[in-house]
């Protein structure tokens, strides 16, 4: 058996025995895992936005080399917005607080954040696919549509902060 797998199994067994003996520890570990998952999720979304931005930059290089200089201002605005949006996602508040933190987010509230984030993922995937499928020229309608969709997603992301505030202000139950 792989040594790493065996060590992981031993670690899990130790944690299972520990959580069986100490009340509340299982919940703490689950919350910490959710916090890590939330960060990984946001990092993935931000990375997808970064890759979409790189794709856009590749299109801009191609358009420029081909002499298609029209609408590059729209492409530059979209590039800046994608960068800003990726950084907002990357640095958003964690979706779960630690066991001993003053503000706690419980599972129902966390589910609201996850539902919201699934919508963000769908929107980001749509924007990224549309960027990758841009035509060989800097099409004004396509770039305007992408700019509007990205602006809308960026504005909608403000709702995440509102959801986060709502659930952290509830405190304990």
Element order: H for helix, E for strand: HHHHH
The name CATH uses for the topology is: A middle domain of Talin 1
Q: Helical residue percent? A: over 70%
What would the average pLDDT be, to the nearest integer?
Answer: 81
Largest sheet: none
State the low-pLDDT regions, or none: 96-100
C-alpha geometry: elongated
What structural category do the secondary elements indicate?
mainly alpha
Task: Kindly list the characteristics that best describe this protein.
173 residues, A middle domain of Talin 1, 5 helices, 78% helix
Describe this structure in words.
By secondary structure, the chain is mainly α. It has a single domain (32-169), classed as Up-down Bundle (A middle domain of Talin 1), CATH 1.20.1420. 78% of the residues lie in helices and 0% in strands. It has five helices and no strands. Helix 2 (25-65) packs antiparallel against helix 3 (72-90), helix 2 packs parallel to helix 4 (107-132) and helix 4 (107-132) runs antiparallel to helix 5. The chain starts with a helix and ends with a helix. Mean pLDDT is 81; it is low at 96-100.
Structural topology:
Layout (H helix, E strand, L loop, with lengths): L2 H19 L3 H41 L6 H19 L16 H26 L7 H30 L4
Helix pairs in contact: 2-3, 2-4, 3-5, 4-5
């Amino acid at each position: 058996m792989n040594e790493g797998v065996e060590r992981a199994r031993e670690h899990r067994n130790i944690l299972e025995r520990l959580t069986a003996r100490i009340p509340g520890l299982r919940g703490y570990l689950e919350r910490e895992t959710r916090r890590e998952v939330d960060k990984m999720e946001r990092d993935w979304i931000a990375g997808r936005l970064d890759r979409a931005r790189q794709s856009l930059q590749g299109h801009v290089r191609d358009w420029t080399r081909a002499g298609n200089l029209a609408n590059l201002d729209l492409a530059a605005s979209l590039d800046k917005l994608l960068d800003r949006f990726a950084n907002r996602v990357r640095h958003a508040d964690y979706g779960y607080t630690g066991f001993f933190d003053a503000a706690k987010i419980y599972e129902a509230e966390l589910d609201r954040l996850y539902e919201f984030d699934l919508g963000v993922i769908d929107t980001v995937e749509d924007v990224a696919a549309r960027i990758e499928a841009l035509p060989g020229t800097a099409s004004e309608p396509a770039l305007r549509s992408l700019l509007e969709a990205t602006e809308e997603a960026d504005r909608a992301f403000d709702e995440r902060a509102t959801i986060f505030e709502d659930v952290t202000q509830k405190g304990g139950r």
